[in-house]
Amino acid sequence: MALIELTKQGLYCAQADMYIDPWKSVPKALITHAHSDHARGGNGLYVAHEHCIPLLDLRLGKINSQGVKYGESIHYNGVQISFHPAGHVPGSSQIRLAYKGEVWVISGDYKLEDDGVCAPFESVKCHSFISESTFGLPIYRWKDQVDVFSEINRWWKQNAADGIVSVIMAYSLGKAQRILKHLDQEIGSVIVHPVMGAMNAAVRNFTPDLPADLIWHKDLTVSNYRNALLIVPPNSAQTMLEMFHPCSISFASGWMNFRGGKYQMSAERGFTLSDHADWEGLNKAIDASGAEQVFITHGFTKPYVKWLREQGKDAHELETLFNSHMESEE
After folding, report:
1. Which domain holds residue 109?
2. Sequence-distant (≥ 6) Cβ neighbours of residue 45 within 8 angstroms
3. Model confidence over 206-256: pLDDT tens digits?
4. pLDDT 10s digits, 188-205
5. Three-state SS letters, 104-136
6. Among candidates 137, 136, 132, which has minimal Cα distance to 296?
7. Are 32 and 178 within one domain?
């Protein structure tokens, strides 16, 4: 590798002396997004998109940070660095680094479908592209989100008619805001876990049209919320759910593409909704980048690299410590 190399601390640009989403503490870090497998604590300086900074503050405590607008160029020792929408979660970016005519793009995590909450994905031309492959198999193909949210709203409406509280397990950054944005608020109240409530409040600072929610607390009067839908992290306290018995529990994730899989956990219902690109999305993004060489990380790297090579691409596996087993960091 040239401009970017892999070290024990993570992806590293020696010319700029900066790391990208490092998994060990470093003096200066470029951060693609605020999920904890990409944004760890202990770094001297965090450089990220301006909307990512308050989310990093929320998760890591007050940090030394530099916020950058999408498309704005900053320079470190001659390396031009810019952030471009990844469409993954609020504040997420692809990071472009250019030096002496050589251009690299590190995707972080991304999806191509506009979810109505994140800045939509933008393709960035480059010579070398480092791409995730969380769902890098042809069996992973997502429905249009309009259809998925129609399913969710029908399920909620039927539960409300039956006097059953609806519960969706989802991750607190990205999925929670996306679900809240597309729910039919006329069915009933939306109640969220306090962790999600804090995250939603931070996101509203730059996404003011995110609908309102009620934050769960132990004194909440359950009898007034039989028509409610709860959005809770997968590891939420059982006490919260016991207060809303009877309830119907669901899980929203790309892994629900195969019902009954281990990722469905104890959910009765699964909704296939991912904040990552599916098979077609990965291929479209890589093709659109125009990259001469592609590095594939965290996901189905071996089969996906094999596929790309069969298509005539100069593709390589890149072993990193980003999370490839679940969609997020909970």
Report:
1. 5-140+276-317
2. 27, 28, 29, 64, 65, 66
3. 999 999 999 988 777 777 788 999 999 987 767 677 788 889 999 999 988
4. 999 999 999 999 999 999
5. EEECCCCCCCCCCCCCCCCCCCCCEEEEEECCC
6. 132
7. no
Radius of gyration over alpha carbons of the chain, in Å? 20
In this structure, which amino acid lies at residue 5?
E
CATH of the domain at 108: 3.60.15.10
**Is residue 44 located within the same domain as residue 162?**
no
Residue 149 and residue 135 share a domain: no
Tally of domains in the chain: 2
Q: Which two tokens stand for residue 317?
A: 């596996």
**Domain presence at residue 327:** no
With a cut of 70, say whether residue 113 has pLDDT above it: yes
Task: Indicate if 119 and 164 belong to the same structural domain.
Answer: no
Assess if residue 170 is contained within a domain.
yes
Of 256, 232, 228, 226, nearest to 148 by C-alpha is 256
Rounded to whole angstroms, the Cα distance separating 255 from 137 reads 12
What are 21's strand-pairing partners?
Answer: none
Do 112 and 190 lie in one domain? The reply is no
Helix axes 194-204, 175-182, angle to 10 degrees: 80
User: Which CATH number do you get for residue 171?
Assistant: 3.40.50.12650
d(CA 120, CA 114): 5
Q: 248-273 burial, b for 16+ CB within 10 Å, e for fewer?
A: bbbbbbbbbbeeeeebbeebebbbbb
Read off the pTM. Answer: 0.94
**E strand or H helix at 54, and its extent?**
helix 52-60
pLDDT digits (tens, 9 = 90+) for 167-184: 999 999 999 999 999 999
Q: Which residues pair with 169 in a beta bridge?
A: 232, 251
Residues 220 and 244: beta-carbon distance below 8 Å: no
Strands (E) in the chain, as ranges, are: 5-6, 11-13, 18-20, 28-30, 45-49, 65-68, 73-76, 79-85, 93-99, 102-106, 128-133, 165-169, 190-192, 214-215, 229-232, 247-253, 269-272, 293-299, 314-317
